[in-house]
User: Fold this.
Amino acid sequence: MKTLIFKSGLMLCLLFSAHMVNADVAPDFMDKLLSEDRPEADRVRDGSRRPYQVMNLLQVDEGMTVMDIGAGGGWYTRVMSAAVGPRGKVVAQFGPRALQRNDGQAQKDVAASLGNTEAFFEEVADYPSNSIDRAITALNIHHFNNERATPYFKAIYDVLKPGGMVAVIDHVGIAGMENAMMHRMMKSDARSWIEASGLEIVADSDLLSTNADDHARSISDPIYGRDVDRFIFIARKPD
Assistant:
């Protein structure tokens, strides 16, 4: 695990040590990541997205119930499915807009192919509260403002079990740039939105950071390849 960057203060350090220990993913996790049954487009992203390390940082254990928020093409859905194994469950939250294309058949096919995954076509707020052990929202919030972020993170807070955790991941932006146009955001905004919801940030990790990104271009600029600087917060719902 990469070095974690914490806020100063003994309380946060104690909180981290109490709740962040080595994960116990399903024993065939790496076999599933390397399998040719997994899309090649997913596998080529592993070098920059570091699936095992992210699962370990978030403490995803075999048998947990987890949610991929804004699941998109299902990259994290497949990773989480492998991590929790057949005794676990993944809720792939695609949202109602996914039904506008072929009634969400592509998303339904992803879920069906994994065996332990439910395709969920409503908002996070519509899922039963206190039901999710771990969640991830990745590359979803860079176009948010305060008005949209408030109910979004409140819904995440509500859906997590007490003691449950969420990984919040997005592309790093810097002050003075047109970050939203470049699919980036200020890390400080994400931190404030998370904390305002009542979630406690227990880790601020450099796991997905890179010096190859100068933050001056869109994340889709070919000059970066897939090597774009990302922040990752781990936040916990209090017991």
